[in-house]
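Researcher: Here's a chain I'd like modeled. Treat it as a single chain, no partners, no ligands.
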Amino acid sequence: MTATALAAKVGLTVAPCHRRLRDLEASGVIRGYRADIDPGAIGLGFEAIVFVTLRQADRATMSEFEDRVAAIPNIVEAQRLFGSPDYLLRVIAADLPAYQRFYDDQLSALPAVERLNSTLVMKNLKPNAGPPV
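Model: Modeled as a single isolated chain. Structure tokens:
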């Protein structure tokens, strides 16, 4: 949304709205801007949630696992969890056969993986929802 459209929506003139945006950016509240790309429109309409349990959870193992996960483009979201499982990964692929290859070649090759449990996404109800501001 442009600053002009935002100003109209929140009932400000453009100058103070733009100044407030700059302040939010400078303070780190707004971390950045990005394009909201529909994965299906670029041939990546298949999505899976993968729960990962590691064999061991020492600092070096987790660090290596997290570095490897961060470097894999098809993993579009990753969270470390309290309890079991250890991690939740959101993975996109072209289709089920592509996901199977990804699972076999990359997910199962991640360091210290004891168990992978995939759940296939039927429908994404709230993609890219931000915090309730």
